[in-house]
Amino acid sequence: MFGRKKTNRQANLFRTFIGEGCMIEGKLICETGLRVEGEVTGDIESAGDVVIGSKGTVRSDITARDVHIVGKVYGNVTAKGRLTLSKNGMLQGDLRAGTLVIEEGAIFMGSSLMEKPETGKPVKELPLPEKKGKSQRTQAAG
């Protein structure tokens, strides 16, 4: 009853909303989810999910559990879980994520590093058997 711990479900709630026409400058630290439809300049850290809506423009580095980009992001993004770049979304910067979804039509300019969602460790590269005298490499979990 009293002193209950926050659940992961509470971190999913979008209790912080930056609306269209609103401009914020500075570092944002949120215990719950964040939705941006306005403009943000400054780093964003959230224990929950972050959604950059279709009207949102963010010039910052983002760290959150899951990140969904429908608007524009200029900066690096770290998603401990899933990063989704929707068909009208744009990310100009590097990303780290456990799961990456890029819809057809989305714009991504940067590099990506995939990590195992449960451990946060980078995926190891393993060599494939050589074919016709050429060596090929791919990423595999390990």
Mean model confidence by pLDDT: 82
Radius of gyration: 17 Å
> What are the segments in which pLDDT stays under 50 over at least 5 consecutive residues?
1-11, 133-142
Strand content bin: over 45%
Structural domain tally: 1
| Cα separation of the termini | 43 Å
Overall 3D shape:
globular
- Treating each run of at least 4 consecutive H or I residues as one helix, how many helices? 1
What is the helix/strand order? HEEEEEEEEEEEEEEEEEE
Strand count, sense and barrel status of the largest sheet are: 10 strands, parallel
Helix content: under 10%
Look at the helices and sheets and give the structural class: mainly beta
DSSP summary, beta strand count? 18
Region (Disordered): 114-142
Organism: Paenibacillus gansuensis
Protein name: Polymer-forming cytoskeletal protein
Pfam family, one: Bactofilin
What are its keywords?
4% helix, Polymer-forming cytoskeletal protein, 6-stranded parallel sheet, 142 residues, BacA/B, globular, 10-stranded parallel sheet, mainly beta
Can you tell me about this structure?
- The protein is mainly beta.
- The protein contains one helix and 18 strands.
- The protein has one helix at residues 8-12, and strands spanning 14-18, 23-25, 28-30, 33-36, 39-41, 44-46, 50-52, 57-59, 62-64, 67-69, 72-74, 77-85, 90-92, 95-102, 107-109, 112-114, 125-127, 137-139.
- Strands 1, 3, 4, 6, 7, 9, 10, 12, 14 and 16 form a ten-stranded parallel sheet that branches. Strands 2-5-8-11-13-15 form a six-stranded parallel sheet, with no helix packed on it. It has a two-stranded antiparallel ribbon with strand order 17-18.
- The protein is globular, with a radius of gyration of 17 Å.
